[in-house]
Amino acid sequence: MFERDGYRVACPEEIETPALLVFEACLAHNIKTVIDLAGGPANLMAHVKTHKSTEVLRRQMAAGISRFKTATLTETEMVAAAEGPQALLAYPLVSRVKIDRFISLQKKYPRTRFQLITAHAENAAVLSAAAEKNGVRLEVMVDLDVGQHRTGIGLEDAGALYQYIAALPGLVPAGIHAYDGHLSDPDPAIREADALACLEQVQTLARQMEARGLLVPFKVMGGSFTFPTYARAEGVLASPGTWVYWDQNNLTRLPEMPFRPAALVLAQVIDVMPERGQVTLDLGSKAISADMGRILGAPRARLLLQNEEHAVIATEGHDLKLGDHVLAVPGHVCTTVFRYPGSWFIDASGNVAGWNEHAARDRGPLPD
Ligand SMILES: Cc1ncc(COP(=O)(O)O)c(C=O)c1O
To answer: Could you tell me the fold of the domain covering 24-248?
Structure first.
């Protein structure tokens, strides 16, 4: 039995390293925790970009979460293929080929309510023409830029865009989407005040539209840093994603949040240089996010060099021998998961409980 900080792997020697392991008890804890912090599953639109997995999606749905956010067409297809009731593709679709694929998914999976975003009248007109041509109605949210300045339209112009969408044939205005990735103050009280200011922008736009007789069916906001504020606001859905697996960056930046790292990389010592006080692990940049993260049980260990398949570590006195296993909490779990076609579920006894395919890891269509 290999055990570090409460994470148990019964037979690590039977797993080819590097491998991504998903600890089922931590995953279940995180699902329960996000629902508790949100005040119920109905206040969430969970982002699937972190896990990209049908099985994890099913566990979220079994816990009552029914709305999902996606960043790619393949993630959207994964939600629909699993009969997720609602899928918002919160990523601009500005090419014909992608718009056509979105429409064909909407036609193929009638059980799912599909939605997308836009921030430009020009794009809305293209979506409208495509909807008309294909005989469908597209539900479109206005992507409101609340300060991150990555995508979206500012509050001063957003109302005109919303009205324009409402007037276009084939389009249905579905509400407001606002992502606040710029809010990362370590002080939870300051972060909450910042989030409330973003919320006020969304509510202002919603009030303006409702005053003009337009419906604002959904308001979708935020990520793991701010979701408790939004989830508890009246009529707002919060859209965090990283909470599902958590990671070292979030442990460091959000110490008050009670999530547990659930997806860890199992690696091995593949070379030792005791005279230099260093070992080499199979934890290269193709195995884990470039910042590597933290090795459990070796808090002083320092990354000296990371190549594609190698990580050279200063052991700083930790006893690591050739062939030893290590478990690493990724710095950024989202950019670790997609490096693997799947991960191993590990049960509470440390046994492998099944293969967790990362079905939406790639960008092409899912196999039938
Ligand atoms: C548009 C959008 N919504 C939601 C999220 C989820 O945020 P987090 O990763 O902090 O949970 C992200 C993260 O990148 C995002 O880009």
So the answer is: TIM Barrel (3.20.20)
How many residues comprise the chain?
Answer: 368
Decide which of 3.40.50.300, 3.30.420.10, 2.60.40.10, 2.40.37.20 is the CATH code for 2-22+258-357: 2.40.37.20
Query: CA dist 206 to 158, 200, 214, Å?
Result: 10, 10, 9
The pTM score is 0.97
pLDDT band, residue 290 (cuts 50/70/90): confident
Q: What is the 3-state secondary structure (H, E, C) of 203-234?
A: HHHHHHHHHCCCCCCEEEECCCCCHHHHHCCC
pLDDT one-digit tens code per residue, 231-251: 999 999 999 999 999 999 999
Show me where the domains of the chain are located. Answer: 2-22+258-357, 24-248
Per the CB < 8 A criterion, the answer to whether 171 and 206 are in contact is: no
Map tokens 């442990």 to a residue: 251
Atom 2 in ligand 1: residue holding the nearest Cα: 179
Mean pLDDT of the chain: 97
Report how far ligand 1's centroid is from the alpha carbon of 276 (Å).
41
Q: Is 152 in the pocket of ligand 1 (CB under 6 A)?
A: no
Decide: residue 284, CB within 10 A, 0-12 exposed, 13-18 middle, 19+ buried: buried
Residues 6+ apart with CB under 8 A from 286: 308, 309, 339
**Is the shortest distance between the CB of 141 and ligand 1 below 6 Å?**
no
How close is the Cα of 52 to the center of ligand 1, in Å? 14
